[in-house]
Design goal:
Length: 141
């Protein structure tokens, strides 16, 4: 039986539909991977800021030691150390009962998902985490 002209025109239809679907699925997969990397980096920064805030609650005036504690919180943070900005701020005097805030910012997180840079204006974003804690020592005079 000889195929009709309409059947001849539909031979590549499935391949074309698969190609369009595959492109969409790969872009979606790249977005999910980037989201996971960004979330992992945020959690590492938050944990490092928590470690710094804990140390700062006991030693609020030792800013360089607080920053060292943040850098050494994990291997991931240590690997990012050249692109991190760490700020330590006191809420009032450096004595018990007042607050201390440690903020860790990754200034240059790369996004690998195609086309997302077009919407954001750059293929790199800033991720930051901030933790506040109460100073426990020394007592206020």
């Amino acid at each position: 039986m000889k195929p009709t002209p309409l059947e001849n025109n539909e031979k590549g239809q499935s391949l074309v539909e698969f190609a369009f679907s595959l492109v969409f699925l790969l872009i979606l997969l790249a977005g999910i991977a980037d989201l996971g990397r960004a979330l992992f980096t945020y959690l590492a920064l938050r944990d490092a800021a928590q470690e710094g805030a804990l140390y700062a609650s006991l030693n609020p005036t030792q800013t360089s030691a607080i920053k060292d504690r943040v850098y050494n919180a994990s291997d991931h943070v240590r690997d990012l150390s050249s692109e991190l900005i760490i700020t330590v701020s006191l809420d009032g005097a450096a004595c018990a009962g007042n607050g201390v805030t440690v903020k860790v910012t990754h200034t240059n997180f790369p996004i690998t998902m195609p086309f997302l840079g077009t919407f954001l204006g750059s293929q790199r974003i800033k991720i930051s985490a901030s933790v506040s804690d109460t100073i426990l020592t020394p007592p206020c005079q």
